[in-house]
User: Which sequence fits this backbone?
């Protein structure tokens, strides 16, 4: 392996889509087998589709941001060197990443390395080892970049027209995630959630603290054996970004959605580390579930809660583990085949049927006389015994 010396890191500032951490290349990718044999163009960098596939295939993604100008060499980063020697790695001198890792992997996180190069080296090695212990060896994608805190630096996305050359670098404006104002959340055509109205999140169970989540940006889906997650990121009017993680469990030919994780991030804060998730649960009787291949539909209000935090879903249809693209299977309705009005109708009908049967029996029990009077015959007499 060639000597590990990347030179001085270039600080050209860029923005990572969902976070406010400004960072730039060059970039070092390591840790997953997808990087084996990858050739990097010195002018164009890594292919965007390849990056998205690497993000999605990794069990987790950890982005390390350095805030120093010390050289990345054996003397300053000996522990990191030992990690690199054990994994496949790719070095790219590109100034920016065309895809945001947080948009394609629900287990992606950003870590700011602080202190001297030696401290950064120890922190990087320890945190990466923790990630591999949680998700498995050669399953965690590590990315090393340079942090830049100047807010005026922006990431400019290159957009080339069909008649433009592939090397065009004319900026088309700052990168912004598209905002959608519907309540249809499609995760890679593998899971869909549809609601007639936007979800409502109440932080303290009061109307004043309620957040109507009517604008979402990214939707990602992660599927694993026995469990999968649909993650939807919402944009709010204030400085809070809300992420809902709908958790699906699959067992014995049925799927269920018993929990929703909620994550709140203050986008104005300089701290880009993720806040702990709040797990909301629904009562067992109201838990959405259906056989595999079927969707779940409910016109009632579904309420997930954890203490004072409440998530309300209205008139929902949902289905994970889709096999035929973005199309719901037959609906498994939460109301079922017998409702309170149906039971009331059956009870009243049964009561009337019993009354009718008694009336018919009473009529059939009437016995008319077998002899009748005539003008020429003798008068009939009846003896009544008390």
Assistant:
């Amino acid at each position: 392996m060639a000597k590990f010396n990347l030179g001085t890191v270039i600080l050209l500032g860029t923005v990572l889509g969902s976070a406010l951490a400004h960072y730039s290349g060059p970039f070092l990718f390591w840790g997953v087998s997808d990087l084996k044999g990858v050739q990097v163009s010195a002018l164009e960098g890594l292919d965007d589709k390849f990056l998205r596939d690497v993000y999605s295939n990794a069990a987790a993604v950890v982005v390390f941001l350095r805030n120093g100008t010390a050289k990345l060499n054996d003397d300053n980063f000996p522990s990191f060197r030992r990690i690199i020697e054990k994994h496949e790695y790719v070095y790219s001198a590109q100034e920016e990443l065309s895809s945001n890792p947080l948009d394609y992997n629900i287990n992606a996180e950003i870590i700011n390395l602080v202190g001297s190069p030696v401290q950064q080296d120890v922190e990087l090695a320890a945190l990466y080892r923790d990630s591999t212990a949680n998700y498995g060896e050669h399953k965690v994608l590590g990315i090393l970049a340079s942090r830049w805190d100047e807010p005026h630096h922006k990431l400019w996305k290159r957009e080339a027209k069909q008649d433009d050359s592939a090397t065009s670098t004319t900026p088309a404006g700052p990168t912004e995630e598209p905002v959608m104002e519907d309540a249809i959340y499609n995760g890679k055509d593998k899971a869909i959630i549809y609601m007639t109205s936007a979800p409502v999140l109440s932080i303290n169970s009061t109307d004043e603290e309620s957040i109507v989540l009517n604008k979402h940006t990214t939707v990602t889906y992660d599927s694993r054996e026995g469990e999968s997650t649909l993650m939807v990121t919402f944009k709010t009017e204030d400085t809070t970004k809300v992420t809902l993680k709908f958790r699906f469990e699959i067992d014995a030919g049925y799927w269920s959605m018993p929990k929703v994780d909620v994550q709140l991030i203050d986008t104005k804060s300089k701290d880009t580390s993720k806040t702990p998730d709040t797990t909301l649960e629904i009562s067992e009787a109201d838990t959405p579930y259906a056989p595999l291949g079927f969707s779940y539909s409910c016109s009632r209000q579904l309420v997930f809660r954890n203490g004072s935090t409440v998530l309300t879903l209205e008139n929902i249809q949902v289905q994970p583990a889709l096999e035929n693209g973005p199309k719901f299977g037959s609906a498994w309705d939460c109301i079922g085949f017998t409702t309170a009005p149906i039971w009331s109708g059956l009870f009243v009908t049964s009561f009337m049927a019993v009354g009718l049967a008694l009336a018919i029996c009473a009529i059939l029990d009437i016995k008319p006389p077998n002899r009748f009077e005539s003008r020429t015959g003798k008068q009939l007499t009846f003896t009544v015994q008390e």
